[in-house]
Amino acid sequence: MSSSVLLDNLISALQVMPGVGPRSATRIAYALLDRRRAEGLQLATTMQEALTRIELCPCCRNYSDGGKCSLCQNVKRRTSGVLCIVETPADVQAIESSGTFFGTYFVLHGHLSPLDGLGPQELGLDVLEQRFASGEITEAILATNPTVEGDATAAYIAAMAHRHQLVLSKIASGVPFGGNLDSVDEHTLATAITQRRPFA
Amino acid sequence: MSSSVLLDNLISALQVMPGVGPRSATRIAYALLDRRRAEGLQLATTMQEALTRIELCPCCRNYSDGGKCSLCQNVKRRTSGVLCIVETPADVQAIESSGTFFGTYFVLHGHLSPLDGLGPQELGLDVLEQRFASGEITEAILATNPTVEGDATAAYIAAMAHRHQLVLSKIASGVPFGGNLDSVDEHTLATAITQRRPFA
């Protein structure tokens, strides 16, 4: 317990953030109070605004400021006809930073998991089917996580895509750059070998 | 850049917190949006309230909810006559968690540093002198950081305390528990040897 109840409240509220335990919460609270009150107040306002106003884009279910998100509004992306299906909004940002994809996205917000109450409806697969049916999409890229649940979800979506005669692909699995072969798990290595590519 | 300007703003505002860089800010923003909107809004409100309402206790200059802080209001502590002088509010909390001090504190919010514009006035030494003069204090414990600046500040306060005929002490310097002697710097080790204590 500190000298101020408000300070104690702040320290405990800060721990809602992932990776922030009691020690870093205390450090953050004192830093804001000691030197950064104005920036801290700005952060509080920004947080309030973001958490109140950010909603799901009706088109791709990614986060948007209201209505269609900026990626779906981009005409070049929309007319590319390529749709990349990912599990989370963070995955969209990860693919965006790779700088290799110029189509639109669809965000599932999870993977099929009947035990957790996550069925096709919860993942927005009805919205996805509408997009497949709209005729705007020619190719779908499955970019769910390379896990059992991710693969099962990808298989379900693949069946949907086949019904609409779409070109379908799945992002490559294999050894990641910069690692050592002996630190890669055997399943990844097995995939890398069975899915080897011709090399000139 | 993500799909939402509000989200980008949140990610950049979160980086005002020490130890939070672009990657953890992104992780925190998505965690709050994905699963913890209500807790995040609560955090924003708590932060706003704390940063607006927390002020300095007129008595010890520690953080308080307004007026005297809870430590200064404690009669047992106030009548103990022992005052511990520290550099920051975080130091108070550190000493409190050690569970060995039951007097009151005085927080300098820094150390004497003329080049940074931190003189006796900025450290509240006029308030401290009033407390020395009040007759309530019988012993002062110097607990500034064991650095050149901390020691200089302690020396300045010691001269003040002498003028008021207070019992004066300084917290012990030496090897910390749980470490190895060979990982302790030579200055600390020299202090530990010259200030060795009789051992029965």
How are the elements arranged and paired?
2 copies of one chain form a homodimer.
Chain A: H1 5-14, H2 22-35, H3 37-53, E1 55-56, E2 63-64, H4 70-73, H5 75-78, E3 82-86, H6 89-98, E4 104-107, H7 125-133, E5 139-142, H8 148-163, E6 167-170, H9 186-194
Parallel strand pairs in A: 3-4, 3-5, 5-6
Antiparallel strand pairs in A: 1-2
Helix pairs in contact in A: 1-2, 2-3
Question: Keyphrases for this structure?
Answer:
homodimer; 200 residues; alpha/beta; Helicase, Ruva Protein, domain 3; Dna Topoisomerase Vi A Subunit, Chain: A, domain 2; 2 domains; two-stranded antiparallel sheet; 6 strands
Quickly give the CATH architecture of the largest domain in chain A.
Answer: 3-Layer(aba) Sandwich
Determine the CATH topology of the largest domain in chain A: Dna Topoisomerase Vi A Subunit, Chain: A, domain 2
**Helix content percent band of chain A:** 40-55%
Please describe the biggest sheet of chain A, giving its number of strands, its sense, and whether it closes into a barrel. 4 strands, parallel
Topology as H/E string of chain A?
HHHEEHHEHEHEHEH
Biggest interface found: A-B, 61 and 61 residues
Give the neighbour order of strands across the main sheet of chain A. 4-3-5-6
| Strand-residue proportion of chain A | 5-15%
Strands of chain A, count: 6
User: What's the number of domains of chain A?
Assistant: 2
The average pLDDT of chain A is: 91
Rg over CA atoms of chain A: 22 Å
Distance between the termini of chain A: 67 Å
